[in-house]
Design brief:
With 154 residues, chain B is mainly alpha-helical. Chain B has six helices and no strands. In chain B, 75% of the residues lie in helices and 0% in strands. Chain C contains ten helices and eleven strands. Chain C is globular and about 65 Å long. The chains are: A mainly alpha (504), B mainly alpha (154), C alpha/beta (334).
């Protein structure tokens, strides 16, 4: 009997025309909100709260979930087409997606990212539906030291993103971490690198850095060869073949699990999941379709599956514990309050149908994602073919408004344009810009984890180091980092080379 | 690979500037007050500044031969056309003008001038079309952000 | 002829300007903007977005809410202060600005603003992981006396609720802990559920459901009156009657305009918020949210703010957590 009612709740959004159309509208809007840098799902959902506060809970949730699912996916579009990630979670998508667009395969890339997103999204929802209580207990086991280890795991990706020179990559990564530290230190209230300026106290928003260093710098590089005709996009084959998907099924499943796992951690979200999944793909796929960074399909599949699987993941602590994993879930929790619910551990016990209703909406949103994602690709891909003299200023103005929209602050525009110029210099001189963003995203996670772990041991260095070997979970993470470092053969070979030189 | 990156006039200057910047960062990091514990505000910044200095020195060392191959004066001369072609300089000027004018002229006017100016400068469209496309784009952006998303543009 | 047309334009423009200024009397003549000093999804944001629609109904105009977080809200305070004093720009703030001067974050604070409405306040609750042995806050304090500076306390950083409460406990009971800082109450609770910190003091709004589910144990309410539904939780005054002098105390959420806004406008806003907040649905939200309704404005609210500031800044001064002594700004001792 109980199972029957669960199925009824799952099906609710499928059978009601009103809910169905709300999810559809939400997903469609979400795709475009996600695609525009600076417009975020968080923003859209919080606007919806004042818009839907007089509605019933179910239609309001249906709309929000649609926007959420669409928005997380939508970020990938601009990443692939213009190398401007629409959202932080789409940064990793551009690593191989943009090279694909440069090869004239933007259509395929979008098609592939859509299918990967949907598969990842569905796997995430399934995990959410059937394993939520178990996963939420596991997510609580993560201590500050474990977050530090996760951040280190992510930062190791610098090794594969630094292009011609590892030293340049490390410099760029450290620069990113430095940028993330500007502003008021949460731990002590101390301003760092602020020069006593209130504007700088709030730090530099990482979306402003992201738009500038990827988007505007790319525009400036493109200006140099304005006369070159844009690449003709081949849009004949958009839907990826079953064979391609089947070949990568194992990778898709692994990356979905990474997405769910990271998403379920209250201290880490889709951006980190996508980066870790990309790193995992680089390490585990021995024979990619093309070398990574030059348009490997695997490099596109991994982050896209992970960031959409993350939706199911972050919903787990949201519903089982009432704890937001990121800004979007925080806003949704607020919406639940406003609609008279009490988010927290009792929510699932007192209103168990809520889970099934959300699961239903999420599944439906993924169906619509597939439909909307695969239609209209042609028009999108053709956008890249617009004459550069026309396209570039439009990109810049959208970047400007997007940067402003983050915090309604004109300063963010200055930062964004400033980092555009910095990014241009870096690109000119063989520095990669991706490590900068990697540093910006992972820097705070790393610093917070390190300092909390240090405080936990009352600033005792030995106690701090000992922590990494006491607990089985931590030990597993530590060991996998050791193996990752050893596995990055270049570094291993270099170390060995240096070592033997020293001996001789 | 080596030949492809051999000619990059200005790189040496940039890396030296980066080194100087990193040293300045280290000094600022050391000046962050209350450096008492391993978990104080200043510890991580110092660590990062040292990483930056280390990697900048590493870049200089790895490329010492390549950098030596070019005289400083020669490098400066060549870097002008390499990094600062006219079109980039021109566009940066437009961006700076936009930044200066955007607050006094408010969003709509300054952005319109910027759009039309850049279309014309980059020869993206004929003057008449530039004016039209600029207006249409702004109308879309304004409608989307200000009306739908309640982002109050300045 | 052309010149005349131009003149007509000027005349029309002037008329519009004149009409606009004349309409200031029946405030509001256009939509208002409310700047929230914390990010989307935070408690201040939740409260602002939940109650504002009821006020909009009364005002007959929209209040467009914008998040402008940064530097514990100082960015939004500065921003609103830079806008014209016409009452069309509102500040949705929490308690933080009262600490800006002693923490050297900004020179502005609520003295430069007029409280339109203090909406609600939150009660602090001392909580611990259920695996910990303590059942009453006295047991926690006794344990802390034996192991000074050892017990792991989840903290939200300087000036945060946890640290001020910690300063209270130090001032009255002389106990010290090992504070581990997290970027907010949510992360503190998460870490506590996982056993990575042992106890903390957080707002009841974020802890109540965990207490109800039996995942966290409430050791004391930082209040001298009990809260509905939590009657069996001891009050902090049961540890020592000396706590009375600090109470009532806790984070609060309010709406402010610039001090030099015209009185008629202030009055219109105060009335609108009073009516809006008294809507039964708004009241229900505030109760659901685990907070205590305040609904005060003007002089009454200023009295509350002054007392709050004096209690908190001097406590932080004792704990050596301030950059400047409250005496420097003429803040009286409680």
């Amino acid at each position: 009997m109980e199972n029957l009612s669960a199925i009824q709740y799952v099906m609710m959004s499928f059978v009601s025309l009103k809910l169905l159309s709300l999810v559809a509208a939400g997903t469609l809007c979400g795709i475009y909100i996600g695609a525009i840098p600076g417009l975020s799902v968080t923003m859209a959902v919080s606007i919806l709260i004042s818009f839907t506060f007089s509605w019933d809970l179910n239609p309001a949730l249906a709309l929000m979930i649609g926007i959420w699912t669409g928005g997380v996916y939508g970020g990938s579009r601009m990443s692939i087409l213009l190398n401007i990630p629409g959202a932080p979670a789409a940064v990793a998508t551009g690593f191989d997606g943009y090279p694909l667009a440069k090869l004239g395969e933007a259509g395929q890339a979008i098609g592939l990212s859509t299918t990967a997103s949907v598969i990842g999204g569905v796997i995430g929802v399934v995990a959410f539906a059937f394993a939520a209580p178990v996963i939420s207990e596991y997510s609580l086991m993560f201590a500050p030291r474990d977050y530090l280890l996760l951040a280190i795991m992510g930062i190791l990706l610098v090794g594969s993103l630094s292009g011609e020179s590892l030293a340049k990559g490390i410099f760029a990564g450290a620069l990113g971490v430095l940028l993330s530290m500007v502003g008021m230190d949460n731990f002590t209230g101390q301003g760092r690198f602020t020069f006593g300026n209130v504007g700088l106290m709030s730090g530099i928003h990482f979306v402003a850095i992201m738009i500038g260093i990827f988007g505007v710098s790319e525009v400036m590089v493109q200006l140099r060869d304005l006369h070159i005709e844009p690449i003709k996009q081949d849009v004949s084959r958009i839907i990826p073949s079953w064979r391609l998907l089947f070949k990568h099924l194992y990778l898709i499943i692994k990356c979905s699990l990474i997405g769910i796992g990271i998403g379920a951690l209250p201290g880490a979200g889709g951006d980190i999941a996508a980066l870790l999944a990309y790193g995992h793909a680089r390490r585990s796929v021995k024979h990619p379709t093309r070398p990574f960074g030059e348009g490997a399909y695997e490099g596109l599949i991994a982050p896209e599956t992970a960031n959409n699987a993350c939706i199911g993941g972050t919903s787990i602590p949201m519903l089982t514990l009432g704890i937001p994993g990121d800004a979007v879930t925080a806003v949704i929790i607020g919406a639940l309050y406003i609609h008279g619910l009490k988010p927290g551990p009792m929510l699932m016990i007192e209103t168990p149908h809520l889970l099934w209703f959300i699961v239903g909406c999420m599944l439906l949103a993924n169906v619509f994602l597939l439909i909307f994602g695969l239609t209209g690709i042609r028009a999108f891909a053709k956008m890249v073919e617009v004459r550069k003299g026309l396209l570039m200023p439009i990109i810049v103005i959208i970047s400007i408004v997007g940067a402003y929209a983050i915090n309604n602050s004109i300063y963010d525009i200055y930062w964004m344009l400033g980092f555009g110029i910095v990014g241009y210099f870096m690109k000119q001189y063989g520095f990669q810009v991706a490590p900068v963003i990697l540093g910006v995203i992972l820097g705070p996670l790393m610093e917070t984890g390190y300092r909390q772990a240090m405080m936990d041991q009352q600033n005792n260095l030995l106690g701090f180091l000992a922590q990494f070997f006491v607990n089985p979970l931590t030990l597993a993470l530590t060991l996998s980092i050791v193996f990752m470092i050893l596995g990055q053969t270049q570094l291993w070979a270099k170390l060995r080379g240096k070592f033997s030189r020293k001996i001789s | 690979m080596e030949e492809k990156i051999v000619l990059r006039p200005g790189e040496r200057i940039l890396v030296w500037l980066m080194l100087a910047f990193s040293i300045a960062v280290l000094v600022m990091a050391l000046l962050i007050p209350n450096l008492e514990h391993l978990s104080s505000s200043g510890v991580f910044p110092i660590f990062i500044a040292c990483t930056m200095i280390g990697s900048a020195l590493c870049i200089l060392w790895q490329n010492r031969r390549r950098y030596k191959a070019m005289a400083l004066r020669e490098e400066l001369r060549l870097s002008r056309s390499f990094t600062f072609p006219k079109v980039v300089i021109g566009y940066v000027v437009i961006l700076v003008l936009y930044i200066l004018l955007t607050e006094p002229l408010h969003f709509l006017l300054s952005s319109y001038l910027f759009l039309v100016g850049s279309f014309l400068f980059l020869k993206g469209a004929t003057p008449a079309r530039s004016f039209l496309i600029g207006a249409v784009m702004l109308a879309i952006i304004y409608g989307l952000f200000q009306t739908i998303f309640k982002v109050i543009l300045w | 002829m052309r010149k005349m047309k131009w003149l007509y334009g000027v005349v029309a423009l002037l008329t519009v300007c004149f009409l606009a200024s004349a309409q200031a009397e029946d405030f509001p003549a256009k939509d208002l903007t409310g700047y929230i000093q914390w990010g989307a999804g935070g408690a201040t944001d939740n409260v602002a977005r939940a109650v504002t629609p009821y006020v909009e109904k009364v005002l007959g105009k929209q209040v467009i809410l914008q998040n402008k977080p940064g530097a514990t809200g100082a960015v939004a305070v500065q921003w609103v202060h830079n806008q014209p004093s016409d009452g069309y720009t509102l500040l949705y703030g929490a308690e933080n600005p009262l600490l800006y001067r002693v923490l050297d974050i900004s020179q502005l604070e609520y003295k430069d603003f007029y409280p339109i409405a203090l909406i609600a306040r939150n009660v602090g609750v001392v909580i611990c992981n259920v695996d910990q042995p303590w059942k009453h806050v006295n047991e926690l304090f006794a344990d802390a006396k034996k192991n000074p500076g050892q017990i792991k306390m989840g903290s939200t950083g300087p000036g945060g609720l946890t640290n001020v409460a910690g300063a209270m406990f130090k001032a009255i009971n002389g106990v010290t802990f090992n504070p581990i800082v997290f970027p907010g109450e949510g992360p503190v609770i998460t870490a506590m559920l996982g056993g990575h910190v042992q106890w903390s003091t957080v707002g009841l709004a974020s802890a109540r459901e965990h207490i109800r589910a039996g995942r966290l144990r409430a050791l004391a309410l930082v209040s001298d009156t009990s809260v509905a539904g939590l009657e069996n939780v001891p009050l902090i005054t049961s540890a020592s009657a000396d706590y009375k002098k600090f109470l009532p105390w806790g984070p609060f959420y309010g709406v402010f305009v610039k001090k030099d806004t015209p009185d008629a406008v202030k009055k219109a806003l105060v009335d609108a918020y009073r009516k809006g907040l008294n809507d039964p649905k708004a009241q229900e939200f505030i109760k659901n949210f685990g907070s205590v309704f305040m609904g005060i404005s003007g002089a009454e609210a200023e009295k509350f703010l002054n007392r709050w500031q004096s209690v908190t800044t001097w406590l932080l001064d004792d704990a050596k957590e301030v950059k400047f002594s409250p005496a420097k700004f003429g803040i009286p001792k409680p």
